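quick q for whoever's on today - can somebody do inverse folding on this one?? i tried earlier but teh output was garbage lol. tokens:
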């Protein structure tokens, strides 16, 4: 009987088994012998038997086609015969010609697999065929070398932790709990050794008795971008070695009526040559106590000649003033001690109080602290 086709839009033509005189233009006798792909009717793919079932056959639990890195083709099969132990199967590989070979562990040792509730699955990666079944309670993940019948290997499972992971915060590279280096303001003379910019003023500037706070005075009704700069070499501590230290932190606190914008704060360092200046990446956030926490770092994405910073001479802090008092002595900005190269007390306290959010910190130069930790700490404080 002839086969006819009709052009019907996107199908390009319907295959029929009867003459078109007996079938309407929009109908076909059947579509059991075709598949529709991309609007085209093609002959349905058939199948053939290339490996007969062995004697005593019971059932197969997974048949997966594997293509090796070298182009080798084979099927991975888990089969069960009636003679096998109850509810167990054995692994085989089947070549394209239909040859079936049992896969054993070196020795050789017969492999007995469970997990026969669902089919076994497999894939090839870097020269190994990995075979797995989530219902296999003892050995759910295994591998073998395609084509090698003596290479079955059970892969170890990562045990489920019995206790929570305990992490600690190392405050020094040697793991001690001592603080990182803090810069004391001892020896600094605010009247003569600080350079003031904008509305910052030597009037009202001072270092407290314990040398751990520096107050920067301002004129009455301050409203301009301002700054102050002082030298480490003018203080007892001397030049600071920042060659292998990426970060510094310090707190700022407004006195009385003065208000500054935390987002406007910029920290700059001046090298020992007195001319090389570098603006650090700076973040600042006001905490719930009203203290502005300032964190500054050398940007990790830039390749800098860090050798020149082995003698960092000066530091400059710039900021925008939002509001102030008409009384000059009510416009103080108080800077706390600078922590060099690591985590300040307030960072340590924040994480010590949240032991469930532990982390390991090894060295300030690690980009973990630079580009990962700090924004997340800020997010914690925002919450």
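ok took a stab at it. sequence:
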């Amino acid at each position: 009987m002839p086969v006819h086709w009709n052009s019907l839009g996107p199908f390009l033509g319907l295959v029929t088994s009867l003459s078109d005189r007996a079938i309407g233009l929009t109908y076909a006798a059947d579509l059991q012998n075709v598949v529709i792909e991309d609007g085209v009717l093609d002959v349905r793919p058939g199948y053939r038997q290339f490996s007969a079932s062995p004697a005593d056959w019971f059932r197969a639990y997974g048949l997966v086609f594997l293509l090796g890195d070298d182009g080798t083709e084979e099927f991975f099969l888990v089969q069960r015969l009636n003679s096998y132990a109850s509810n167990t199967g054995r692994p085989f590989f089947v070549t394209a010609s239909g040859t079936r070979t049992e896969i054993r562990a070196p020795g050789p040792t017969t492999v007995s697999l469970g997990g026969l509730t669902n089919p076994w699955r497999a894939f090839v990666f870097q020269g190994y065929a990995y075979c797995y079944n989530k219902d296999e309670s003892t050995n759910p993940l295994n591998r073998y070398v395609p084509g090698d019948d003596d290479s079955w290997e059970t892969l170890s499972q990562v045990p489920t932790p019995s206790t929570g992971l305990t992490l600690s915060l190392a405050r020094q590279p040697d793991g001690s709990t001592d603080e990182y280096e803090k810069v004391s303001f001892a020896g600094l003379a605010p009247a003569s050794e600080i350079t003031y910019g904008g509305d910052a003023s030597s009037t009202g500037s001072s270092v407290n008795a314990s040398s751990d706070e520096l107050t920067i005075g301002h004129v009455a009704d301050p409203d301009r971008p301002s700054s102050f700069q002082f030298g480490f070499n003018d203080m007892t501590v001397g030049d600071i070695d920042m060659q292998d230290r990426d970060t510094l932190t310090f707190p700022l606190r407004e006195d009385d009526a003065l208000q500054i914008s935390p987002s406007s704060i910029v920290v700059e360092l001046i090298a020992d040559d007195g001319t090389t200046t570098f603006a650090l990446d700076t973040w600042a956030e006001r905490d719930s106590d009203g203290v502005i926490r300032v964190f500054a770092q050398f940007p990790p994405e830039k390749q800098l000649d860090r050798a020149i910073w082995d003698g960092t001479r000066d530091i400059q802090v710039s900021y925008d003033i939002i509001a102030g008092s008409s009384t000059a002595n009510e416009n103080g900005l108080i800077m706390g001690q600078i922590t060099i190269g690591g985590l300040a007390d307030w960072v340590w306290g924040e994480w010590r109080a949240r032991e469930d959010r532990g982390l390991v910190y090894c060295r300030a130069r690690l980009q973990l602290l630079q580009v990962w930790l700090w924004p997340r700490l800020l997010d914690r404080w925002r919450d």
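fwiw Residues 367-382 form the longest helix (16 residues). also The first strand starts at residue 34 and ends at 37. so keep that in mind when u check it
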